[in-house]
Write a structure and sequence with these properties.
The complex is a heterodimer of chains A (315) and B (437).
Chain A lengths: L15 H19 L12 E6 L5 H12 L3 E6 L11 H9 L5 E6 L4 H6 L5 E7 L5 H15 L6 E5 L6 H12 L3 E5 L15 E3 L2 H5 L4 E4 L15 H8 L3 H4 L7 E3 L12 H4 L6 H22 L10
Parallel strand pairs in A: 1-2, 1-3, 3-4, 5-6, 5-8, 6-7, 8-9
Chain B lengths: L10 E10 L4 E10 L2 E6 L2 H4 L5 E4 L4 E4 L1 E6 L12 H11 L1 E6 L10 H14 L3 E7 L12 H6 L4 E3 L8 H12 L4 E4 L4 H4 L4 E2 L2 H6 L3 E2 L2 H17 L2 E4 L5 H12 L4 E6 H5 L21 H12 L5 E3 L7 H4 L16 H10 L5 H16 L14 E11 L18 E11 L2 E5 L4
Parallel strand pairs in B: 1-4, 1-5, 6-7, 7-8, 8-9, 9-10, 10-13, 11-12, 13-14, 14-15
Antiparallel strand pairs in B: 1-2, 2-3, 5-16, 16-17, 17-18
Helix pairs in contact in B: 5-8, 8-9
The chains are: A alpha/beta (315), B alpha/beta (437).
Chain lengths: 315, 437
């Protein structure tokens, strides 16, 4: 299969055929995960390091499981505080890790571009597990896989992404992937939570959630972090929920067969009503399952590509 | 080139193309230098030289006043591993800068007469070019208490600055301006509202959205420029916006000048020759304050220099090392070195026909010298012989390993440039010499 990448740093740079091929491979991985015997030996003897500068339970365990199911040795490194405060630069960390000869480095960092920086300095494949407000490519891929399994295709679908777009790497990766695959992407948020000039990415913005959801096939909710409520970006939780929280009444504007998604962890009663989150239209748990599958697919592809080692930049 | 280390006897730079914005002189000729000063200049000087005078053949290249850089940051005192006055002056000499005004944001901050004196003494003992310290306007650059402005000006501070921090409290700014006026001290302010900057790290727009980086709106600058202009009007002080980056700031400055206010502004060479797209995928050497803006804003800056609204071009030389630059974009320090590339980079606008050589040298030398009240920026007889010999066409490829500066954070690594300083003289002494062969 043609997937000529050494790293997965973002959805930007992937072509629609590459995305399709990745999703196809992930379908196989779904089957493996549903077997009693879940272990493959493709990555036997390979080392995967999960380097998380930001706390994350589900993404880190998803990557860990994906690596292990492929037969790799997986090590988790959680660097709680930013490396800067410890006096060691990110690149010092990278050089140290590089000396341990990992084959796959999974990186999450609070700063946009951190995985790009690392990828230039290490010899192994780097997977971006979320960098600041930039990208979270495996989340977009697992979302796409989930949607495709329900709707059969991505092309022509109307996807409404709702909530804190401004700070969301999930939103950016999803915008890039879905628009590339021919879906119509709508963003629903108050102006304080919409990034500047985001329409240039090929999306339509709605401040009125009912209009934004009108006729949508997919409703994707985003998490609103606590520190961004209470007067900083929105006045209060109750005002936010009133206008932008997904409840059954607002969901009626979407298509009858619309699915509801959330990257997790959810703030029930802030961006989503429990009755919707737990309803039959919610595919939130399936997203978690697809997460392991797409991560297995991407790790497998990059491991195959990394047989020819890449040169490391010296400066 | 035969030129003694310490040139005492008179000598002449012959066969040069004279260029002096202070007099409008633009013709082939020669310069006679005696006792470190310009003795005579013009087309007829060469024919009147007595035969025993040493002649340095300029091979038809440009002879212009040495550049006066109003915005240089060094690491002395406090961060000598990034840059000392000595290393900065070597970089300056290589770039044709014969006078540099040094920013007060060092460690400790230059907010006391003893520190003004320290910089002057260190420069006298170690630097190859003229060095003039700025004095901090507020203690520790905290924007709260006024420093001993009068005493520091008397001790030799060239002007007042609050470094890379703006004074946000308008009342404090008003008092500083009002008091500075009594000493005719120039206020050089960085007009960027830190509240509107917030956690912004680059220009606000599609690029910042795509990169997932927090953006800085133009209004962070324009609101501060507008406020400062009104306070300058209220207090009657001489005000200089150290670096502007937005077309709307130009409108404000233009209106202030039309009113006759003593308001001027500068732009960095970076904002004239680079734009936000140069950041690419998080290249930290392009992170600056103010941020690199859009191409349209860059074009507006060039027009601003051409029409005279922008008075001064600065290098905004800001040495940063691995410890401050090799981080993710949002976490790294602002700034790039620029002393050695300022003039070659400026040549891009001259080669593209957007600026004349005369306009460029005026903004790089004559006007900043006038604003700072220095005997520089002119080749008139009697002026110090701070002179550059410059080949405007010599092609070369920049490499950061060529830099004299201790820090290599250049925004022009691997850039193709046309134009290079061949000789730099400070008070008639050769401080830099480049032989293209």
């Amino acid at each position: 299969m043609a997937f000529a990448h050494h790293h997965l740093l973002g959805i930007a740079g992937l072509t629609p055929p590459e995305i399709t091929a990745l999703l196809d491979l992930a379908e196989d991985a779904v089957d493996i995960s549903r077997q009693v015997e879940k272990k493959k030996v493709i990555l036997k003897g390979r080392t995967q390091i999960n380097l998380f500068f930001e706390a994350s339970t589900r993404t880190q365990s998803s990557f860990e499981l994906a690596g292990k199911r492929l037969g790799a040795d997986v090590m988790n490194m959680s660097v709680k505080n930013s490396s800067v405060s410890k006096g060691e630069t990110l690149l010092d960390t990278a050089t140290t890790l590089n000396a341990m000869h990992p084959d796959i480095l999974v990186v999450r960092h609070n700063a946009a571009g951190a995985p790009q920086l690392l990828a230039r300095k290490v010899g192994c494949s780097v997977i971006n597990a979320g960098d600041g407000a930039h990208e979270h490519p495996t989340q977009a891929l697992l979302d796409a896989l989930t949607i495709r399994r329900h709707k059969g295709t991505l092309e022509g679908l109307v996807v409404a992404i709702c909530g804190d777009i401004l700070h969301s790497r999930v939103a950016r990766s999803n915008i890039l992937l879905l628009t590339a695959m021919g879906a119509e992407v709508r963003l629903v948020a108050p102006s304080t939570l919409l990034p500047d000039s985001v329409e240039a990415m090929g999306v339509k913005c709605f401040r009125d959630m009912r209009k934004g959801l009108d006729g949508a096939d997919v409703v994707m909710m985003l998490r609103l972090q606590l520190e961004r409520m209470n007067g900083a970006f929105v006045p209060s939780i109750r005002e936010y929920f009133h206008f932008y929280g997904l409840d059954e009444e607002k969901l009626k504007y979407a298509r009858e067969d619309a699915i509801v998604m959330h990257p997790g962890p959810m703030n029930r009663g802030v961006e989503i009503d429990s009755s919707v989150a737990d309803s039959g239209r919610s595919v939130i748990h399936e997203q978690v399952e697809m997460g392991v599958a797409v991560r297995m697919a991407i790790i497998e592809l990059l491991a195959k590509n990394s047989l020819e080692a890449q040169p490391v930049e010296q400066d | 080139m035969k030129m003694p280390e310490r040139q005492k006897a008179p000598f002449a730079l012959t066969n040069v193309k004279l260029l002096d914005p202070s007099t409008g002189l633009d013709e082939p000729g020669a310069i006679l230098i005696e006792d470190g000063k310009v003795k005579a200049i013009g087309a007829t000087v060469a024919s009147q030289l007595s035969s025993d005078i040493l002649r340095v053949d300029g091979a038809g290249k440009i002879a212009a006043p040495g550049l006066v850089d109003m915005h240089v940051t060094t690491g002395e005192p406090g961060a000598e591993h990034r840059e000392t006055l000595k290393s900065a002056s070597q970089a300056a000499a290589a770039g044709g800068v014969t006078t540099m005004a040094c920013m007060p944001d060092t460690d400790p901050v230059i907010d006391d007469i003893a520190l003004v004196d320290f910089i002057k003494r260190r420069a006298r003992d170690t630097a190859k070019v003229h060095v003039h310290p700025y004095a901090a306007m507020t203690r520790g650059l905290k924007g709260k208490e006024m420093t001993e402005i009068g005493l520091m000006i008397e001790a030799g501070a060239v002007a007042l600055s609050n470094g890379r921090k703006a004074i946000t409290n308008a009342q404090i700014m008003r008092r500083v301006m009002s008091y500075a006026r009594d000493f005719d001290a120039l206020i050089v302010h960085h007009p960027e509202d830190p509240d509107l900057v917030g956690n912004g790290v680059m220009n606000l727009g599609e690029t910042s959205t795509r990169l997932g980086l927090a953006g800085i709106p133009a209004e962070a600058e324009t609101i501060m420029v507008a406020r400062d202009v009104r306070l300058a009007q209220l207090t009657g002080c001489r005000y200089h916006a150290s670096q502007i980056s937005c077309a709307e700031s130009l409108d404000i400055i233009r209106r202030a000048k039309d009113k006759g206010l003593a308001v001027t502004c500068g732009v960095s060479i970076n904002h004239l020759t680079l734009n936000e797209n140069d950041i690419g995928l998080y290249r930290t050497f392009y992170k600056m304050s103010p941020p690199l803006r859009s191409e349209a804003e860059r074009q507006a800056m060039i027009e601003g220099v051409a029409d005279g609204t922008i008075d001064v071009i600065v290098s905004a030389h800001d040495p940063q090392d691995v410890d401050t630059k090799r981080h993710p974009f949002a976490e790294c320090a602002d700034g790039a070195v620029g002393l050695e590339t300022m003039l070659p980079a400026a040549m891009r606008m001259i080669h593209s026909g957007q600026l004349t050589m005369m306009q460029a040298i005026k903004a790089l030398s004559t006007t900043p010298a006038q604003l700072l009240g220095l005997d520089a920026g002119s080749l008139k007889p009697g002026m110090p012989a701070d002179i550059i010999i410059f080949d405007p066409d010599l092609p070369w490829v920049m490499d950061r390993d060529m830099l004299q500066s201790r820090s290599k954070n250049t925004a022009f690594h691997k850039a193709q440039l046309s134009g290079k300083v061949l000789q730099t003289y400070v008070e008639g002494q050769l401080v830099h010499h480049y032989d293209p062969r």
